[in-house]
Every structure is written in C-alpha cells, then in structure tokens.
Amino acid sequence: MSKQSREMEIVEHLDELRKRIFIVLGVFIAAFAASFIFVEEIYDLLTKDLGTQLVVLGPLDIILIYLSIAAVIALAVTVPVIISQVWMFVKPGLTEEERKASAVYIPVSFVLFAAGILFGYFIILPLVLQFLLALGEGTFQTMFTADRYFQFVLRMTVPFSILFEMPLVVMFLTTIGVISPYGMQKNRKYAYFAIVIVSVLVSPPDFLSDVLVILPLIVLYEISIRLSAVVYKKRLRRLREEEKNASSGSM
User: Fold this and answer.
1) What ranges do the domains of the chain cover?
2) What's the DSSP call for residue 206?
C-alpha cells in the first residue's frame, strides 16, 4: 500500500470517527434538552419515596441539581447509542465470526445496562438508605442536601449498570477466544479480590453497603463462568467442524 493510499485510509477513518462522535453528541444534547424540560417531574419521581424535602445551601444549587439530573438522564439514554456507534465504527475490521457475536450481544447489553440501574435503584439503594438512617435514629437529626443525596443515588445505581455487563463481556471474549472458563476458574481468587476492591470504592463507607455490592458481583462472576463454559463448548465444536471440513476439502 502506497503512502498516499494509507493517508487516504486514515482520513476516511477520521471522517467516520467524526461522524460517529457527532451522532453521539447530537443524541446527548437532544436527550439533555428533553430531560431538562421535564426535570421537575423527574426530580419529584426520584424523591417521592424519600419522605422529606431535600435542602439546598444556596440559590445556584437549584439549577446545578437540575442540570446534573438532566445530564445523568441524558447520559443513560446515550449509552446504548455510544455502544452501537462504537460497534459500527469497528465493524469493518471485525471477522465474520466477531460480527455475528457482537450483533447478538449489543442488544442484550442495553437490557443488562437497564437491569443494572433498576437493580441498584430499587433494591440496593433502599436497603442501604434504610440501614444508614437506622444508624442515626434517635441520635441525629437527619437532613439531606440535594447534592449529597443525588451523589449517593448515583453511587448506588450507575456502577451496577456497568458491572451488570460482565456476563456479556465474558461471553463475547470467550466467543473470540480471548478467555476461557478454565482460566476464570483458575483466577477466581484474584477476581474476587478485584471485586472487593471495586465494591469498596463505589459503595458508601459502611460494612453493609460493601457486602450488598460485593455479593451480587460475585454471583455475576459465577454466572459469567457458567455462560463462558457454554460458549466455550460451542466454540470448540465449531472449530472441530471447521477443521473436519477443511481436511475433507483438501482430500
């Protein structure tokens, strides 16, 4: 390939990358604008079960809270678009096998992303919040500032939306031969150690919160091993069939 051809190919890749970035930014801006229009309704929905009004420490905090809520909602809406645009960008460089695998996994990743957020918001968040409130009952007068509360909500939901993608990532990497279930079993203790570290970092600084984050992640890791084993067996079967067909064709 000549130098001029390489330069043209690089320019085409950059143009394609710019196109994908503009699409992502366009979706984010549109989602942000729509979220900000209905931000008061979203705020009421997020705080309706709290049982108390949130406090702000200054007039600018109100607009900052609204902007933060709109940005988070817009980001959540944009994540599936980011995944799809990344896939479309790298698709030309993938093998046929990798294209088929990713085409199946990408829609499932959207479902897992949403499931992670719902799990964090409806299961982990209420449990941790009730526990923390119970610690201070009768001793402290509880007063939530809006920014602290929404930081807490984000820490209890967003990490799960990412971590719930673990089984899918494992299945994809197994399909293309990067990892195997045997390697995951062999390195289980190191994986558990990494899970503990991540859980402590993303959860509030109390033992119960750490446990409530660690246990689901360990379960996800074990599920990932089982799914990896299923995919690994199918991959071995397919490779044997390909070798058999190749030997038959060479005869």
Assistant:
1) 1-93, 103-141+156-251
2) S
